[in-house]
Description:
With about 220 residues, this protein is mainly beta. The protein has 1 helix and 17 strands. It is about 10% helix and about 55% strand.
Amino acid sequence: MNEKIRSHVMTIALFAVFLVLSLDLQANTEKQWQFRVFLDDKEIGYHKVRLSPEEDGRRVSVEAKFDVKFFFITAYRYDHQTEEFWEGACLRDIQSRTDNNGEQLFIRKQAEGNNFTLETHDGQQELQGCVRSFAYWDPELLKTSRLLNTQTGEYQDVEIIELGDSPIEIEGRMVEAVQYRLMIEGSSIDLWYTTDMNWLALQSITEGGYRLSYYPAGEAF
């Protein structure tokens, strides 16, 4: 092997090692998603997700707070916090509490092992198989047909429709994105992801007919 070929092979080998190390580093790096939340065109709060890799899975912390005011009077207040632990694509542990305008809701996983027993404000329920929640940060969500509502404890049937390429305007800039629609018991949630499938935005229509929107609070594309 002459020196030019040897040098070329070594360069490729070093690049391959660097790529593997880079991917491993990314897989073990904490990730965060932070969103500004709007009701129609009025900003009402925030939604944050923090993903922390651990040796045997991923720990996910979620915090959301909304405060809706009309003429300086608070008409609606929402405070939600969830701690989840994931092994691969499956939810293994969850602790959740929600103050839904004064209504106190909670979810706690009770059993260990393969059994997934939830205690909620409405009682207990047994869930079977690989349980997933409305974890919009994980594109694998788009491959499932049932999702756990971490506010109410309902295990809901969902239909997921891919709407294809759909650029979305964020802070005056058009961003290339892919849009999906989650159909849930007569309602829908629209999700946008960047072309490399990073969660970018969310929109839904509330029961009162208002448009609820999430937009990134910082660079997400």
